[in-house]
Amino acid sequence: MEKAKVYFTDFRCPVGTSALDKLQRLCKAAHMGDIDFQGKFTAIKMHFGELGNLATIRPQYVKAVADLVKEWGGKPFLTDCNTLYPGSRKNALDHLDCAALNGYNTITTGCQVIIGDGLRGTDEVEVPVPNGEYIKTAKIGRAVMDADVFISLAHFKGHEATGFGGAVKNIGMGCGSRAGKMEQHSSGKPKVDEELCRGCGRCAKECGSDAISYGENHKAHIDEEKCAGCGRCIGACGFDAIQSVQWDANELLDRKMAEYALAVVHGRPCFHINMVMDISPNCDCHGENDAPILPNIGMFASFDPIALDQACADACQKAQPLPNSQLADHLAEKDWHCHHDHFLDSNPRVDWATTLEHGEKIGLGTRAYELIALK
């Protein structure tokens, strides 16, 4: 397969140059304008972040992309689908409030916000997955599939289950309805190591299935019948007391996520942008964001989501870990087994490469890319 072109620009802005101008120049140089936007509904898929999370993409960047779509005759709208777990994005009303409070509204972004899978997360379309090995039909938010053109605008950061969150996760997991998210997460059910459990209650607060209770010993217990396998409790536990006992659960999640992403983008014009900045160790689904593990790197764009994520991952691996971060703390531990992989050293149970390998296998894109750097 021919190498995909990935375009890149850093955040250096001499006096008189705006980062917003650089983003628009990047999109134009990457030939986003070759898409026929005229009169077309254009979904800009992004992550609005939980309330309290400050690492999400600034709304000014979003407006820069939306303005380009309108300049080319398109009708842009921002979209995301509801979450499995409790929080500020579990239904469309709370989700819209969250988006507005986090700065995403018609004034700041220049376009409307539509929650992709409706009021309760049940407004979905079953979409065939070409070459799907694990998913034959993906459950995708209806508004996402009703769009004529699809743009992924992702905050590239670390992730406690998938290693990092970039274009593929923004598309595959993010566009799944609540049932679709459950289908991707359902490969394994976590278990509690009672010797490590402190009985703090954090995991139960994060559980969207009411599956966690506490016995007389004040240790957490997970009811497998109720558990949806979403893994939210694993990320919530600060004591490593909850782990997936199915060794390949994360690997299967990665593969299903790639297949969901293929269902979303197949057969229609798509373009993908990753903002590699504020690289927090965990997902923006948290109501907080830990200190960045790596310095801000730049903006990347491509028609190929696999090549785009691979280029961003490679750039991150070349960067120096930031002090006073989760990654730096791990590397400083006396008995730490260094993996020489920033995502794995930040979250040791992840397997991020599987997403890209499987995505390439099923035809979502190629890991081979040519990086074109712009000033």
Short characterization:
By secondary structure, the protein is an alpha/beta fold. The chain is built from 14 helices and 16 strands.
Q: Can you describe what's shown?
A:
- The chain is α/β, with parallel strands linked by helices.
- The protein folds into two domains: 308 residues, Rossmann fold, CATH 3.40.50; 55 residues, Alpha-Beta Plaits (2-Layer Sandwich), CATH 3.30.70.
- Helices cover 32% and strands 20% of the residues.
- The longest helix has 17 residues.
- The radius of gyration is 20 Å and the shape is globular.
- The model has no long low-confidence stretch (mean pLDDT 94).
Give the SSE map.
Layout: E1 4-9, H1 19-29, E2 41-45, H2 59-71, E3 75-80, H3 92-101, H4 106-109, E4 112-115, E5 124-128, E6 137-141, H5 142-146, E7 149-155, E8 157-159, E9 163-165, H6 167-172, H7 178-185, E10 190-192, H8 202-206, E11 212-214, E12 220-222, H9 232-236, E13 242-244, H10 249-265, E14 270-276, E15 298-302, H11 305-318, H12 326-332, H13 342-346, H14 353-362, E16 369-374
Parallel strand pairs: 1-16, 2-3, 2-7, 3-4, 7-14
Antiparallel strand pairs: 1-15, 5-6, 8-9, 10-13, 11-12, 14-15
Helix pairs in contact: 1-2, 7-10, 10-14
Keywords: 4Fe-4S, Iron, Iron-sulfur, Metal-binding
Protein name: 4Fe-4S ferredoxin iron-sulfur binding domain protein
Domain 4Fe-4S ferredoxin-type: 188-217, 218-248
